[in-house]
Fold each of these.
Amino acid sequence: MDFIMNLPFATIVLSLFCAVICFAFKDKKARFVSYFLLIASGIMSASVIFYNLSSESGYFVYRMGHYDAPIGNEISAGLLEPSFLLLFEVVMLLSLMGGSHRIMRDVEEEKQKYFAIMVNLTHASLAALCYTNDIFTGYVFIEVCTIASCSLLMLSKRTRALVAATRYMIFSLIGSSLVLVGIILLYSITGHLLFPQLYEAIGTLWSTGEYTFPLTIALGLIVSGLAIKSGMFPFHFWMPDTYGTATPSASGILSGVVSKGYIFLLLKIIFRVIGYEVFLDSKIHYLLFLFGICGMIVGSVSAIKTNNINFMIAYSSAAQIGYIYMGLGLGTKAAIVAALFQIVAHSLTKPMLFLSVSGLSDTVDGKQDFATLRSSAHNNIVAAVSYSAGALSMVGIPIFAGFIPKLLFSISAFGHGIKTYLMLIALAISTILNVLYFLRTLINIYSPAKVESARKTIRFKNVPTFGVIVLLMSALNILAGLRSQPIVSLFEKGLELFINIR
Amino acid sequence: MNLLINYEAVTSMVLFAIGFTMLVFSRNIMKKILGLNIVDTGVYLFLASMGYIEGKLTPIVPATGEVNALDYINPIPQGLVLTGIVVSVSFSALMLALTVRLYKKYRTLNLDKIYEMCRKEDEQK
Amino acid sequence: MKNKKFSSLLKEWYEGNLSFDERMDSDIHKKETAETEEKEIRLVKDVEKAEKELTSKGYKFFSVIFCVILALILILTVNFMPLFADDSTPTANEVYEHYVGEGRDQTGAVNTVAGMILDYRAFDTLGESFVLFTATCAVLLLLEQSKKQKVKEKESFTFSNDPIVCTIVKIITPIIIVFGVYVLFNGHISPGGGFSGGSVLGAGFILFAMAYGEDNAAKIITPKIIRVITICSLSFYCLAKSYSFFTGNEFNGIHSIITPGTPGDIVSGGLILPLNIAVGLVVCCTMYSFYMVFKRGRLD
C-alpha cells in the first residue's frame, strides 16, 4: 500500500502533463482531457485520504529528489491537504461540466482548448499549493495559479472581462510581490526554505528574541500578501468585476477554488512554518480578525447596494471570505475548524449560485439586473430551484451547508472577552444583511412580472448537463449540511496533525 | 549602524518601495508594469547581495580534487534570482499583452479612463 | 430619493429600481434623449473630470507619503538584518555547505548552481518552466488572431533590402546561435544553463526575423515546429523528473540508473544536461513566439 504515497506527486505531474498534451489539440477535445484529469486526481486524493486515515501516523513526507529535507525538496500530505484538494477537484469538475454550454458560447471556438489548458494548470498549481512543503515552491506555484486563473477570466469574449482581468492581475501582482519580499526576508534571517527547518529556525529566533523585528515584518508581508490575493476586506474591489464578467464556469472556479487555494496555503504556512504559538504571539491575528469582521459587514452592504445579481453574489463572496479570516483571527482551534468548514460550504455554494444565475439570466437574453430578472424563475425552474438552495445556504438556514460554519463560529466565540461580543454582533448583523439581499432576489425572481417582455423558456431537456449538475450541487450542499459531523471530525484530526507532527 | 554596511539591502529596499508605490498608485498601465519590474530588480539585488561573502569564489568548483565548501559563496540565492527573473518575464509579457488589447480597444493607457469607458459602454447596452 | 417614504424606498429597492449611485441614475434617464455624439463628448468630459480628481495633488502627495513610509519600514527591517558580505550569516549554513561541498560528487555538475536548480531543487525549476508555458499560452490566447480575422495588413517594414543590415545579420546570427548552443550544452560545467542559453538562442532567432522579415522567418520556424518543440521538451521534462522523483524514494524499490558521470565532461551530470537542453528549447520558443505574437498577432 506504500504505493499510495506516490499519488500526491503523481497528481501534480499528471496535471502538468495533461496541460502540455492539451496544447497539442486543435479543437475542444481538450475539455475531455480536463474531465479525465479531474476525475483521476479526485480518485487519487480520495485514496490518499483513506491511506492516511488507516495509517498510524496519518501523515507522510515524500521526497522530490534523492535527498532528505534541508537539502532536497519535498511534499507532505496529512489529512487536510488531500481533503481540500478533493474538494477543489469536485468543485472544479462540477462547475466545468455545468457551465460547458456557456463556455461554448462565451469563448471563441479556436480558443476553447486554452480553457482546458488553464483549468489543468490551475489544478496543478492548486495541488502543489496544497501539498508543498517548501515555501519557494509555494511562491512559484502561486504565480502559475495567478496567470492561469487570470487567463480563465480573459477568455471571455466581452471586453469588460479584459478590464476586469487587468484589475485582477494588478491586485495579484501586489500580493505576489509582498509574498516574494517576505519570503526572501525570511530566508535571509533563517537560511532555510523548507517548512520543518523554517519552523524550527523561527521558533528558536522568536524565543531568543534575535531578529524579532525583521521576522515580524517578514511574516506580516507573507500573510498580507496571501490575504490580498485571496480578497480580504480592503482589497476586495476586484471581486465584482472579476466574478461578474467571467464565464460562469470561470467565476465558479475563481471564487470557489482559487481564492480558497491561497487561504489554504496561508493556513499551512501559519501552522507548519510560523507555528501557531508564534503566530498568536506576533499579534498578526488581531489584524486578520478585524479585517475579517469589516469585510463581513462591508461586503454585505455593497451587496445590498448593487442592482446586478452577479455583482451581488461577488460582493457576498467578499463577506464570506471575511468569515474565514475572522475564524483564523480568533485564535482558537474550534474557530479554525469553523473557518475550514466555511471554506467547504462556500466552495460548494458559490459555483452553484453563479451557474444558476447564468441559467436565470439566459431566459432574459443575458441581462443581469433585478428589474429585468423579475419572474424569471418560471422560465427556468431547475436554475431557480438551485438558486434558492444556494441562497438559503448562504443565509444559513439549517439543513444547508452554510448553517454549520455559522453555528460553529458562534459556539467557538464564547469566552474571549471583547472578541466574543464583536464576533457575535458581527455574525448577527451579517446574517441579517445576508437575509435582506438574498431574500430580495428570491422574492424578485418568483414574483410575477409587471411588464410583459420577451422571454425564452429553458427546460431541463434543453441543457440536461446543466440541470443535472446544479441539482447535484444542491444535493451535495444539503448532504454537507446534514452529515457535517464526519467532516468536522476529519478537520479536527487534520488540524491536530498540522499542529503536532513535525 | 548596520545600515552603512547593509547599503546594498537599503538600496534594494528603496527600489522595492518605489516600484511598489508605482504598481499601486500609478494610473498608467505601462508605469504599473515598469513599477513591477523595479520591484523585481530590488528583490534580485537583495538576493544577490545576500549570497555574497567577502573574499570567496563563484560556486563553480574544480572538476577534480577536494572541495572546501567554505571557499565558495552561497549558490542558493542565485537559483532563487533565476526563478524570480523567469516569473517576472512571464508577468511582464502577460501584462503587456493585456495592455496591447486594451489600448487597441480604448486608445488610452489610463486605467481610470478605461474603467469609466467600460462601465458606460456596459450601461448603454 | 430623499423625499420618499421609507416603505416606497424599500419597495423600489426590492424591485431593483433604486440606484445608490446618483450619477448612474441620471445617466439612465437622459439616455433616451441624448444623441450618440453628445454621449461620447459627455463621456470624455466625465472621464477627464474623474482623472483630474484622481491625479490631483492630494493623490500624488499621498502616494509619496506611502512610498516614504514603506521605504522607512523596510530600511528599519534591514537595519536589524544580518550583515552584508559576512561569513557568519544565517544563510551560510549546512545546506549551502552541502550544495557546494558534496554537490559535484552527488550530481556530477561542476556548476553548483546548475546542480542545485536541476537536481536538489528540481521541483521549483519544473514549476518555473511551467510559469513560462502558462505565460506563452496566456499571451497566445490574448493576441493570436483567429484565422477568420486574418485581413491583409499593410506591408510591415523589413530590412531585407538593406545590404548593411543583412550582411551583418548574416554574419552575426550564426555566431549568436552557436554561442547560445555552447551556453546551453555547458550549463553544468561553466556559468550558463538552460535559461540563459535559451534566451541567447531566442535573441538570435528574433534578430534574424527582424532583419529578414517575419514572413521569411515564419517559413523556416513554422508554428508547428514551435508547438512540437515546446510539447516535446516539457513532456520530456515531466517524465524525466517523474522518474527521478519516483526512484528517489526507497519504498518504491527501484534505484535510479542515472549516474553523475565524470565531473567536468560534457556528457556528465546525469539528467542535468538533457534537462538544460529541454529548458533552453522551451525558453527559446517562448521568447521567439512572444516576439512574433506581439509583432504580427500570430505565429506563422
Note: Chain C is about 70% helix and 0% strand.
Amino acid sequence: MRSKTRDPNAERAPWLVSLGALLAVLFINFPIFIIFLYAFTTDEQTFTFPLPGLTLKWFGVAWAREDLWAALGLSVRVAAIATAVALVLGTLAAAAVARTRFFGREAISFILLLPIALPGIVTGIALRSALGLFEIPFSFWTIIVGHATFCVVIVYNNVVARFRRTSWSIVEASMDLGANGWETFKRIILPNIATALLAGGMLAFALSFDEVIVTTFTAGQQATLPIWIFSQLTRPRDRPVTNVVALFVVLIMAIPILLAYRISQRDGEAGLSR
Amino acid sequence: MSATGPLPAIRFENVHRHFGEVKAVDGVTLDVMDGEFFTFLGPSGSGKTTCLRMVAGFDRPTAGRIFLHGDDVSQLPPYERDVNTVFQDYALFPHMTVGENVAYGLTVRKAPKEQRQRRVEEMLELVRLPGLGKRKPSQLSGGQRQRVALARALILRPRVLLLDEPLGALDLKLRQEMQVELKALQEQVGITFVYVTHDQEEALTMSDRLAVFNHGRIEQIGAPADIYESPATEFVAGFVGISNLVRGDMARAILGVESTFSVRPEKIHILGPDAPIESGMDSVRGRIEDVIYLGMYTRYEVALEGGSRLTVAQQNLATSSMDVHTARGREVRLVWEKVHSRKLDGPA
C-alpha cells in the first residue's frame, strides 16, 4: 500500500477529474449495490423501487436449500484442486521460462498467457472439442482441467515476476554450500517465492470460484455455484435467494482478492497485470 | 600427470566450454598450486568467469577435464565439490539473518546447533563483523555484505576458495582496503584462493601468480612481476599496465630488426636532443606533444620522427606542474635500456 504521507509535490486532482472518477466507480459498482439491496426485499418476483418492505427471510430460505450447498461444495473443491494444480504447473513453467534459454522460449511464454487473453468461450469450445475427440466423459475432473488452464497462467505470472527480480546466484550459492536440488528448493527458492505463490494462488482460487463460461462447456450434469445461480434466474419466484447468495459470494471472494492485492502491492509487483 | 611434486589444487586439462558457436573457453590448461593466491585476469568475455564456474560446478566443460587435488571433478555437481564461492553480487539469502547465512553450509550438513553457533561466531570474528549475526543482509553496507559472503564461504573450511570479482561493487577506497585484507585473510587461513578480476592493478597487487585470459585462451601465466616486466604477447603488454607498442619500420629503426616490441613508459628517460647514446641503450628522437601532470608523476606524449608516438612517465621528484608544462614542444631524445625492449609473440 502507498504510504500515508502525502507527496508534497503531488497536485490535487482537478474537480472534473475527481467527479469523473467518482462516476466511473458508481457506474461499475451500481449493479452490485442493486443485488445487495434486493437480497432484503419482501417482493419475491420483481425489482420494484422503492422496496415494498425489508426482510431477512431469504437468508433462511437460502440456508435450507440443499442444491445450493451441493453447488457451493463443488465450487470449493474445483477451485481448491485447480489452484493446487496451477501452483505446481505454474511454478514449474515460470522456473523454466525465467531461468533457462531454449528454442522457442518467447513463444512458450506467449502461449502460456493465451488462456486469459483469449475469450473464455474460445477456451471452452476448444476444450469441449478436445474432450469429444478423445471421447472423455464430462465429469468433476473435466471442470478442473478447464479451470486449471487459466489458473496456471495466474500463478505463472506472479511467480515469473518474482523469479525475474530474484538473483539466481542465491540458488548457486546454496548448491555451492552443499545443498542438493531438493534442499535448495525447500530452503531457498520456496521461501523467496512464497508470497508470490500465496497471491497467485488466491487470485486463481477466486477466478475459478466464479467461472461460468469455460465451466458450461466442460461440466456434465454438475452445477458449480455460478452455474447454479445462473439457472436460478429462470425461476423468478426465488429471485431474492440468488441475491442473498450473490451477496455472500461477493463478500467471501473479496477476502482473497484483497489479500492477494495487498501482498502484490507490498512486494512491488502487479499481481493482476499481465 | 607428472609423477613428481605435490598434486596441484586445481588442474585444467585442455578445457573447452562452447555455448553453441561461441567458444567461451577454448583450450585452457593450467595448474594452481596448493595454498596459492591465483588470479584469472582478463577483459569481460575472455572466459575467466566461465573457468571459475567450471571449478565450482555451475558449468561443465564441453571437452577436457578439471581436477581438484588429483580427482576428476568435471562432471560432479557443485554440492559434491570441496570448493566454496564468493559471488560477485554476494548472493546472500535475503530471507535469512546474517548468522543463518553464515551457518547455511553447516545447517545443510545437519551439524549440531552448538557447533553451528560457535563456528558462526568464529567466522564473524574472522571477517571482523562480531555481533552482527542477528541483522538481515538488507541492513548491511556493501563492504559488510562482502564480509558476510566471505564468512559463509569459509565456514566449511574448503581447500579452495573461489572469488568472482568480489570487490567489483565497492568504491575505490574500500576496494583497496579489502584487497589488503583479503590477502591477509588468505595467508591466515592458508587455503588456495582463485580470484577472478578484470582489474589489472588488483591482480598485480594480490596474486602469487596470475593467468591472463583473452578470447577463451590463456595468453600468459606467471608471477605479477614476470607478467608486467616480460609480457609475452601484445595483448598482455596492452592489458596489464600501460605499454608502448612499437612495430614495423619504427621497430627496425630502433632495434635494427623488424620485430614488434613493447616498452613500459616508466623505463624511458628523456634527454636533450643531442645527448650521446651509451652502449646497451635503445634510443629514438622525437618532440614532446603533450604533457599530462598527474601529481605523483607526469605523462609525456612524444611524437617520433616517422609518425608513431611513445608515452613516457616520469616521477615528479623535483619538478612541479609549472616546470613540466614548459616541456611541451621541446625536441628530445628518448633512451631506455635494451633489456626493456620486450619482443612480442603474436600478430605483428
Note: Chain B touches chain A through 25 residues (CB under 8 Å).
